[in-house]
Specification:
The protein has 290 residues and is mostly helical. It has helices at residues 2-32, 39-56, 61-84, 92-114, 139-161, 163-173, 175-180, 185-211, 218-231, 236-256, 261-276, and strands at residues 130-132, 135-137. The chain contains 11 helices and 2 strands. Strands 1-2 form a two-stranded antiparallel sheet. The chain crosses the membrane at residues 6-29, 65-84, 96-116, 136-159, 188-211, 231-252, 264-282.
Amino acid sequence: MDYFLQLLISGMAVGLIYGFIGMGFAMIYRATGVVNFAQGEMMMLVSYIAFTLAGTLHFGFWPMLAATVAISVLIGLVVEVLLIRPMLGQPVFSTVMVTIGLAVILRSVVVLIWGADPMPLNTGLSTEVIRIGPAGLYPAQLYALGLMAAVLVGLWAFFRYSRVGIAMRATANLQTAALLMGINVKRIFALSWALSAGLAAIAGVLIGVIYDVNPGMWTTGLRSFPAVILGGLDSVFGAALGGVLIGVVENLSEGYIGRGMKEIAGFVLILVVLMVRPYGLFGKPDIERV
């Protein structure tokens, strides 16, 4: 039982990071209908930026996180304006290819600037394991839980009560109707990329603190993609829950079945779920009149 609880709790901790990345995927897809395959690389880039801030300015965890999120939001806006906005009106496939090209470029840029060796992200956080019953977690993993709760509450309030959040929901439902109602759709697209980049920054900092910073971090973005498929590509909150479920399934499968299962367990899970609910657990089916 103790072994099961250890796998469960540590899987939830990893799943929270998947959830942040998955929410970034869903944020962009919900607003624009485009899957950003550079989300993992964005997360890796801002993690290295956090490493530079911690090393040169000696920021602690919270100041570094705030600065990294702010820088990441600016990067997201620049990417949207320079690379994505010119693709408006073009086939979705073309825009997706732009994100794939961006992903390849970011991988090369990171290695060119920072090198290929793993480096610790020192923020002054304790590395002592905190015992929760039979399970042990690092302080950064507990911070991930608190940050996820705060982000979910903040996004819920933003989408429900703010004018911009309501405009984003309207744009996600039907872009043409949103334009007719006077909503600046281009601005909404830019905001979705900015918010997605901010979520990637939180994930990047947490991964860097827990596992060190390295050029292979982008694969975490690929492994978190099942989370957004599981929760529903158009559901930001579903992606968060999907990330936790994927993290737990990966840990349990590796713990009870064997090594190597962790890499494929998430994809096996979404294959099973999609056969029952093709639009994910919390996604909405597209209904078209013919």
